[in-house]
Amino acid sequence: MEGDCLSCMKYLMFLFNFFIFLGGACLLGLGIWVIVDPTGFREIVAANPLLFTGAYIVLAMGAMLFLLGFLGCCGAIRENKCLLLFFFMFILLIFLAELSAAILAFIFRENLTREFFTKELKKHYQRNNDTDVFSSTWNSVMITFACCGVNGPEDFETIPHLPYSSLEKTTPEACCQRELQSREGMFVNKEACLTGIERFQNRQGCYTVILNSFETYVYLAGALAIGVLAIELFAMIFAMCLFRGIQ
């Protein structure tokens, strides 16, 4: 390989690894934010083993990409064959793991349907029982997003009332409107809400509210994932070309 071509390949390799470094930093920041965020996501993640595992996978993948991007940059600039081979093998493993995760997410996407959440809510929800992780998580979601149930207050018609609740008819306390959407927020009119007066209740279902809230971010995350996979693929190609070109 000619010197100019090798030099061009080296700097292209450095550029791609710099983007991997930045992508890893973004994933690392996202993982940390989801785990420590105080606005309700931490409770949701902690209550669901799948989300809990996923958050730490994102954190680990971000840290690994961050490290590998750094190593790739060093290997390219220093023209070190050991670092380049090490980088290629690990980026290949990460690429295959991310591809497998994307395929599994596509296969099991039916577990995130409206019907699935409605069935789980009616089966496990225990209203204001904060000792139950499932109920506490749902209450946090409904308070944070100012929504009620999956489809609306009608989801709670078949769920038994707590024996000590004298006011609550159908709508749980978490569906009542608050001046500030947090557990510490004051109710607009708690008694009227619990006795069934609709104007003091959050009537919109959480499925629609959350879907609308995160729709933009879902597309952004998908585009970011595709971009990261493409960058990783090109980085592996450049790493192997540079490895073969170094004498």
UniProtKB/TrEMBL annotation:
SUPFAM superfamilies: Tetraspanin (SSF48652)
Main location: membrane
Keyword Glycoprotein: yes
Organism for this UniProt entry: Sakesphorus luctuosus
Membrane topology: Multi-pass membrane protein
Gene it is expressed from: Tspan18
Keyword Membrane in record: yes
Regions annotated as coiled coil: none
InterPro entries, per the entry: Tetraspanin/Peripherin (IPR018499), Tetraspanin_animals (IPR000301), Tetraspanin_CS (IPR018503), Tetraspanin_EC2_sf (IPR008952)
Compartments in which it is found: Membrane
Family: Belongs to the tetraspanin (TM4SF) family.
Protein name: Tetraspanin
Taxonomic lineage of the native organism: Eukaryota, Metazoa, Chordata, Craniata, Vertebrata
A GO CC annotation given for this chain: plasma membrane
Segments passing through the bilayer: 12-36, 56-77, 84-108, 217-243
Keywords, comma-separated and alphabetical: Glycoprotein, Membrane, Transmembrane, Transmembrane helix
